[in-house]
Every structure is written in structure tokens, then in C-alpha cells.
Amino acid sequence: MSHYCDLAPAHPFHGPYHDHEYGFPVEGDHVLFERLVLEINQAGLSWLTVLKKRDAFRAAFEDFDIDRVAAYGETERARLLGDAGIIRNRLKVDAVIHNAGVVRRLQAEHGSFRGWLEAHHPRPHGDWVKLFKRTFRFTGPEIVGEFLMSTGYLPGAHRDDCPVQTRILAAGPAWARPDATSDT
Which Gene3D superfamilies does the entry link to (predicted)? Predict the structure, then answer.
């Protein structure tokens, strides 16, 4: 079975994501929100499709400005559903808008989206899935797992022999902290 570490290097889209983003700890809420949006939109599609549309997603969702997206109404929803540059799935668009409002609430309660993640870390994958299903829309096991791996909360983004893994470990991902569980 091929691993992302085998497929991504030198690829024009996968390579930069694999080498500089995937699995590294993320601090900014707008980047965490972007990753959640991209993972939601990947459901049923290839990750390459999402990466190719990433700039269009950034433009469509105003650089993933959480406050602005949370305030979207019918005009913005119609604009998004008419935007051929992104994935025009009503359930996904509605989930992104709804989830922006959820992130705003989590920011108010925990200081940040990251603060909410930290408050619930560590936990095994199955418990994360239950928490995300209670908290967000359109977040099944695969979306939650990939979101958490991509942001450094769960291990598995890279093989141990991948050169990027050494850089990730040096960056101190949540899953590698002494208080972390190894159950994924």
C-alpha cells in the first residue's frame, strides 16, 4: 500500500503540502479553520482536487476569515454555490458557514479554536470523532482523522523514515507530547 510520503515528494501540489504543512502543529485559528474547510470539501473527492482548488477556496471564503464566514447569509451562500472554482455542494457550503459560527463560539469559550483543541487533547481518534460530531457539521471519522493528523493532534501523517517526520517532531506536535496517548 502506498503512503502519502511515497506519492507526494516532487509533485507540484502534493509535494509542498506534504513537505511544509501536513502534520505540522498549527497555531492560528484561520489556518485551523482552513484545514477543516478543506477536509470537509475533500469528502468523496481526491485530495489533489482540493489542493488544486485551494486558492479559489481562499478567495471564496475571504482568506478563511471566521467572523466574515460566520456572518454569511443567503447572498453569500448563493455566491458560493455559483462559484465554479470551489466545490459547489450545498451540504458542504452550509457546513462551512455553520462551522464558522461554531468556531466563533469556541473562541469565546476557550480563547481560540486551538484552545478548544488543546482543552480536549489527548484523546483517541474515536473520542475525537464523537466530540466533532457533537460540535460541528459534516465531520465523520475520515474528516476528523485527517484534520487532526494534518494539524499535529494525531500521529500518522508521515512514515517514521520520512525526512519530514524529523522536522515535525522538532516542531512539537501535540501527539508527541509526554501527555499524549498513542491510540489513534
Answer: Hypothetical protein, domain 2
The pLDDT tens digits of the residues spanning 34-66 come to 999 999 999 999 999 999 999 999 999 999 999
Query: Quick one: pLDDT band at residue 19, thresholds 50, 70, 90?
Result: very high
- The number of beta carbons lying within 10 Å of the beta carbon of residue 98 is 16
CA distance 110 to 105: 8
* Percentage of residues of the chain with pLDDT beyond 90: 95
The whole model's pTM is what? 0.95
Residues annotated catalytic, as ranges: 17, 39, 47
CA atoms within 13 A on the CB side of 140: 6
Helix (H) or strand (E) holding 134: helix 125-135
Q: Which long-range contacts (CB under 8 A, 24 or more apart) does 71-78 make?
A: 72/97, 72/100
5 annotated ligand binder: yes
- Name the CATH superfamily, with its identifier, for domain 4-176: Hypothetical protein; domain 2 (1.10.340.30)
d(CA 59, CA 137): 22
Q: Is 138 helix (H, G, I), strand (E, B) or coil?
A: coil
Assign 129 a pLDDT band (cuts: 50, 70, 90): very high
The domain locations on the chain are 4-176
- Whether the CB-CB separation of 100 and 70 falls below 8 Å is answered with yes
